[in-house]
Structure formats: C-alpha cells, structure tokens
Amino acid sequence: MRIVLITGISGSGKSVALNVLEDTGYYCVDNLPPALLASLVQTLTDEGLEALAVAVDARSAASLASLPGDVQRLRAEGHDVKVMFLTANTHSLVARFSETRRSHPLSHEVRPGQNPAGRRTLIECILEERERLSAIEKLGHVLDTSELSANKLRAWVKDLVLTEHAPLTLFFESFAFKLGVPMDADFVFDVRALPNPYYDLALRPLTGRDAPVIDFLDAQPSAGEMLNDIRAFVEKWLPAFKGDNRSYLTVALGCTGGQHRSVYMAEKLAAHFSATERVVLRHREQ
C-alpha cells in the first residue's frame, strides 16, 4: 500500500495537504492516534485499498513516541511509506490563527496542577507543539509553508505525491532572503554576490526565466563560476544522500528579492540535473 503520513505544526497547512491527497484518490483519515495506524493499514489492505493518507498531530502525545517505530515496521512489511512534515515560522502561525480566529488544538489542554481557567497562550501552544513533534520532524520531507499561499501549497504537495516512487527527488527552490530562509532546505546557497539585474530599469520587472535577464547573467563570468561550483558540489554529494536512503534533497538558492538571480540559478541547475535525476523546480516568491 502507498501510505502518506502528514504531520507537523498546527496552522501549517495539514488540512490543505490532506485535501489534495483526497482529490488524487487517497483514502484520507484526519487526526488519527498513531497507536491505531498499524490496525488501520491492515484493515484497509484487507479491503484492497492501495493508497492511504493519514494526518497526525500533537494531540496524540501519548503515542507519538511510537511513530518512528511504526513507520519502520510498515516499511519492513512492504508498504511504501512517505512522511510529510509541514511547518512554518511562529510569526506566520500567529497571523494565520488570528485571521481564522481558530484556537490552537493544545489550548484546550489543562496541564497538571493548572487552573482550568488559565490555559496556554498561543505562543506557548506553538512552542509546546514544536517540542512534542521534534522527534518525528526528520522522519520525512519537511515543507516550510511560511510564505506559501494555499494554492501554492496545493501545487507543492502534488509535486511530492508525483515523486512517491522515485528513489530520490532533487528540489531546487528559489527564494528571497528578505522574506526568510526556507526551513525545509537541506542546502542554502547565497547568490547575492552576483551582479543584480534589478538595477537595470529594463530588467527590473522581469524574472530569471526571461531571456533578457538570462542573457544578462550568462554574460557575467561570476555567474558561470558560481553555477559550476554549486553544480559540482551537488554532483559530488548526491550519491552519498542516495546511499543514505533519502527520498528528498532540497537545494535552496537565495537572492535579495527572489525574482532574478535565485530564479536564474534554480532554473539552470534544474535543467542540468533533469537529464539524470528526478527534479522538481519551485520558485517561492513567484
């Protein structure tokens, strides 16, 4: 059975991800206690289902510790298990809870010895949830949704689903440093040292996918040197990550605004590695 386990921080988009998987044919279960995962998989396998998506959150604190072992056992039984961990920075989470006026799931818990009227603040809930989930964060692919719209998140989740049978998928992602470094990046390269097309008024409204910007950066020796260095680094270490049984490797390229240099670099690297690897290209600011 193909199994996608969705977990992560409340407010980071788990429901959006689960809806995407439901639309692509997965049998979906929300807020499942991890202790019930093995029996659910067995039941659905007996019924002939081939694709299952399960969302797990920090409210199942008592059984979260068993989740890594459960995932290993399911894989040993021959199931194709992928884990998707969604997260976001605290500022984005606070803004989302404020916009929706929803309460955090942990805000309803009463801590031992606590007056029921004195519940956790939102910030305290977020910190507590990060602590509870820290042990399972590295079980699979971490997806930082801090700067993503719901539509972009849906597209990125679909990309992840499409790569579920690939031994390793390379993600090349452009971003703007002024909006923060992606938390899901395995490697981050700073390309702000390159000449900036932004200062050419004719190039400013364009992006790194437009021919005039490409021509501008192609003409810069430093751009070619940096591109070759990053390419050589990834080529050198990619076999080691494959040998470590990694399913995903995210290489993030950042410039100031995430429009020109980082996009150019991500496009060039994706085009190069697409000839031999499973590649997904993402532009966070576009």
What does this structure look like?
With 286 residues, the chain is α/β, with parallel strands linked by helices. The chain contains ten helices and nine strands. The chain has helices at residues 14-23, 37-46, 61-64, 67-76, 90-100, 122-133, 150-162, 211-218, 221-243, 261-273, and strands at 2-8, 27-29, 51-55, 80-87, 141-144, 169-176, 187-190, 248-255, 278-283. The chain has a five-stranded parallel sheet, sandwiched between helices. Strands 7-8-6-9 form a four-stranded parallel sheet, covered by helices on one side. β2, α2 (37-46) and β3 (51-55) form a beta-alpha-beta unit.
Summarize the structure.
The protein has 286 residues and is an alpha/beta fold.
What's the SSE blueprint?
Layout: E1 2-8, H1 14-23, E2 27-29, H2 37-46, E3 51-55, H3 61-64, H4 67-76, E4 80-87, H5 90-100, H6 122-133, E5 141-144, H7 150-162, E6 169-176, E7 187-190, H8 211-218, H9 221-243, E8 248-255, H10 261-273, E9 278-283
Parallel strand pairs: 1-3, 1-4, 2-3, 4-5, 6-8, 6-9, 7-8
Helix pairs in contact: 1-7, 9-10
Domain RapZ C-terminal: 169-285
Keywords: ATP-binding, GTP-binding, Nucleotide-binding
Domain RapZ-like N-terminal: 1-162
